[in-house]
Amino acid sequence: MPTPISHETSHEAMTRSGIRLTPQRRHVYESLMATPDHPTALEVFMRAKKGMPSISLATVYNCLDALTEGGVIRQVNCERASSRYCPNLVPHGHFFCKECGAVFDIPLKPSLEASWEVPSGTLVSHAELNLRGTCGSCTQRFKTSKL
Amino acid sequence: MPTPISHETSHEAMTRSGIRLTPQRRHVYESLMATPDHPTALEVFMRAKKGMPSISLATVYNCLDALTEGGVIRQVNCERASSRYCPNLVPHGHFFCKECGAVFDIPLKPSLEASWEVPSGTLVSHAELNLRGTCGSCTQRFKTSKL
DNA sequence: ATTTTGTTTTAGAATAATTCTTGATCTCAA
DNA sequence: TTGAGATCAAGAATTATTCTAAAACAAAAT
Ligand SMILES: [Mn+2]
Ligand SMILES: [Mn+2]
Ligand SMILES: [Zn+2]
Ligand SMILES: [Zn+2]
């Protein structure tokens, strides 16, 4: 059962970011917060329509862009697939299951920052770590079906 | 000046991978090897046309896919931009300059593998590290223009 | 409170990268 | 050499996303 989101929280998150608070942006943000997966814009749209039937896909794209721009959410990309969106602002990586398409947050250890070397003078503003493979339940399922 | 590519080398790389060797695939591969940047499919196409004027963009896409599938080259993605292609098979990350669009290979230290934690049972088959920021020469240029 | 100004929403059109389709051509194992 | 299957090429199609323009809205100014 997802943690209920207080309007205070989403209002705060959005005003903190400097973007104008609109009912659509708030609703898109809360649609995203309501589930811990990493939905695509289309999935957010389908969920958002439930509580706001008049919202359009273009608006969902606009809102997701504005929220991303304002740093309230993150856009997550894997290969060439549709962008996905993540409301978790704690720095983290992503794991993509090749079998079932699930996307998980991956906690990162501080040693990550020390594990690459850029040429001197380079300024790194953003680091992104993506893992691909087979998730625990898919691995389990394969083991079972091979018995 | 780029290291000259022997036909032996590209032939070997491709037959080793199990994909069928064709003149187009060899030519696309060598077009990619000829420069150390990370060209898009369209850029590869424009370069490949010089030595093989009859090649089509669809074929370049097909060849890049086949080579990627065969593990002879790597596809590199940054955000939603066009895919880029990299003939460097040594595991490495990528740095993308926000200012000039340059893409650099980033050597990785062994400590990288230890800097994330996946749930038990998860099998990670591929890790990808992307950095974004300002490259050395762009940083330098900005410093100079601010004097 | 009303007007002004700039922003956001919406629907649909447009775009751009990539993939698909199909007939012709090529490769390679037999 | 030959036939089956793979690949090529040109253009059409797809798909995710962005753009356009008019209407609705929100905040600021009068
Ligand atoms: Mn996430
Ligand atoms: Mn590279
Ligand atoms: Zn899975
Ligand atoms: Zn640069």
Question: Could you walk me through the main structural features you see in this protein, from its secondary elements to its overall organization?
Answer:
The structure is a homodimer of 147-residue chains. By secondary structure, chain A is an alpha+beta fold. Chain A has two domains: 10-86, Arc Repressor Mutant, subunit A; 92-145, 2-Layer Sandwich (Dna Ligase, domain 1), CATH 3.30.1490. The first copy, chain A, is 39% helix and 20% strand. The first copy, chain A, is built from five helices and five strands; from the N terminus they run H-H-H-H-E-E-E-E-E-H. The first copy, chain A, has a three-stranded mixed sheet. In chain A, strand 3 and strand 4 (103-107) form a beta hairpin. The longest helix of chain A has 13 residues, at 57-69. The two termini of chain A are 34 Å apart. The interface between A and B is large, with 42 and 42 residues. The complex binds manganese (II) ion (2 copies) and zinc ion (2 copies). Residues 38, 76, 86, 88, 92, 94, 105 of chain B line the site of one manganese (II) ion. Chain B binds a DNA duplex (30 and 30 nucleotides) through residues 20-25, 40-42, 54-59, 61-63, 65-66, 80, 82-83.
CATH hierarchy, class of the largest domain in chain A: Mainly Alpha
Count of individual domains of chain A:
2
**Main sheet strand line-up of chain A:** 4-3-5
Q: Give the biggest sheet of chain A.
A: 3 strands, mixed
**What best-fitting shape of chain A do the alpha-carbon axes yield?**
flat
Distance between the termini of chain A: 34 Å
Low-confidence stretches of chain A: 1-8
